[in-house]
Amino acid sequence: MTASILIVDDSNSVRMAIRMALTGAGYAVTEAADGAQGLSKANGSRFDMIITDLNMPNMDGLSMIRALRKNPAQCGTPILFLTTESEDAMKQQAKAAGATGWLVKPFVPEQLTKVVRKVLGR
Amino acid sequence: MSETDPVAAFRVEAGEVLEQVEQGLLDLGHRLDDHDLIDAVFRGLHTLKGSGAMFGFDALASFTHHCETAFDRVRKNLTPATPQLIAVILSAQDHMRALIDGDGTERKAEGDAILAKLQAALDGAPAPTPAPAPAEQGWRLSLRLPPEAMQNGINPLTLLDELRTLGDCRVVARTEQVPLLGDLVPTHCMIGWDVELRGAVAKADIEDVFIFVMDDMDLQIEQIGPALCDDARNAAAAPAPFASPSPSASPSATTPASLPAPIDDSRPANAQEPAAAPNGRGAPKTGESVRVPAERLDLLMDRVGELVIVQSRLSQLAHSSAADVALHSISEEIERLASELRDTVMVLRMVPVATLFGRFRRLVHDIARDTGKTIELSTDGETTEVDKTVIERLADPLIHLIRNACDHGVEHPEQRLAAGKPVAGHVRLSARQEGGEVVITIRDDGHGIDRDRVRAKAESHGLIQPAQVVSDQELLQMIFHPGFSTAPQITSLSGRGVGMDVVKRTIESLRGTIDVESVLGQGSTVSLRIPLTLAIIDGLLIRVGDGRYVIPLGVVEECIELSLEEDLRSRGRSFITLRDRLVPFVRLREMFVTGTKPSVHQKIVIIATGTERVGLVVDQIIGSHQTVIKPMSPVHCNVPTFAGATILGDGGVALILDVVQLVALGQHQEERLRAVA
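^ inputs. structure came back:
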């Protein structure tokens, strides 16, 4: 079965880049433009993985991750967040909030699909 | 420097080890061939390497690895210990100290210079490769995820699968931290894993697998080097704390399924106990074996037997004083332990039948040569394990049976050709386990047993009356009668009519049974069914009059009630109808002349051997009983009805009924009845 992935990012171009990379690798992709939207979409249907930016208007990534992990239905859903090399403190916070792993920006499509495949195992 | 800082503790400890190594090297300078000193130095280097890698002193570990490899050659007498070599290792020593006390800089140039000198000192010995990766054969990983990892989307199986993509993995789960069901949080990952990863894999690639959990998890990665195989054995004897990145036995030696999981429970759960860490990290005992004299095992078995007896006394006591719950639970615990111990000890005494089968190849070869036949022997199930004493006593009967198969069964080549069979006769010896029994079959593709000849012979011996109806199985069993041989000519090998009865007697003394099947012209199959062990059996404890007796549970088919009407009706003829079959029964009360008043509700225990069934009328069925078989005294050992005795929980003695004898008695009774009718 095709794995479905939710992308949460306020930047349209980043979403597009990720969507292209993932659909190209055979994943089904859904997009959300901010944390609030991401949360409602995530709780509205089941995703095999969520990829989120951290800095976003209308509920940032950290708050969304925390909110997601409060929902028992989201227990165990892999959540990857996008970060930059300089944001080490942020990385720790996101992990503490319950994120599974991270992806350092900027990244090339191969890196993205590699990490997704690593976490999903398919 | 805090007490709980493992790195600091390692520095202290490594300093001590270095001092010992240095002392050893200096002493060695005076006594170049002192093997104790060489071993001590080697162990020191080995410890440094292992624990160095564990606490992140990678430069130290890889440098020490080369020194250790070099010194290993000395230890194995491949290279003599020369003053020159000792001098180099002493200077290496100083380098190691610098690495331990240093700030983490690798000082690679210095190290390489020393290694070059070391190589020169070894004089023609293969150069230790400076790059660590190609020399390594693999990695030993010990990993434990943080409990919340699974909640956060980490799938441990995915991680393990990813490890498998790097190289051959042997994964063993460590479950000792899994809590009781009541305390179990299903979303928490409480299982740890030990992984042995084979292949030239870079450490960074392994760490990459765990990149998202690296900070929170326990992950130890140790190298497994090819040179260490022998050292692991030394580790057990090493007096000093010994950190060994130990390899396991070669995978070809045994299949993983039959190995006990190499779980090292003594391994500390975290690195907060640095002092304890190097201890108990010795080689896993996989594949090691200890030779123990058989008497010691017998002694152990004896003790276990005694323990089982005492345990049953304890459980009887616990059941009688029902008020004491604590005693009850202890008693149950001990019962469980005792039965586990019993099983464990029994397994110790098990030896594969291969030891037995091995001898027969020669036997068949010799017979073929002497008789001019072509005979092939094939065996299977050699790994089937049987109690050692059983194996020993099986040898003679099997020799007889194989001789018979080769000599009487398999025909001469011309006969075989005439019968349209391949020239080479085939004897197949196979063993397999079925429940608590091992079944050994000897099958030949010879001419089979001629029932008419057996019948004629039996009649001439007066074993059966002419025209008497006997079942096919009964007829075939005639060949086990003493003095019975249908071979027209007596050869040096068989046909004297001794042997088959001995076979039967031996098998029966092992509480086994023997079955023959034969198709004329196509061959015969003899099947021996033998209990796996002789020392302890599961028995059914019964009461007859005042006495208690044990029937081996394996032969008990069912227990039914002998109703009063049926009792009266059957008097004098001692048969009951059981599912449309007449089953003879024996009144044990009469047989043992109890003289007490019979129980109102007498029971019949139906026992069966092969196809024969017989009922035993008893007063009471007490229950199942783990029976430790004690031999009868020399005075009583010829009493045919009993196979032995056992001591009961209350200290009383129960006799063990000899089933074969009782069945024979039942059959005799049946025959008498037929004769009367």
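The longest strand of chain A covers residues 79-84. Chain A has one domain: 4-120.
thumbs up if we can close this ticket
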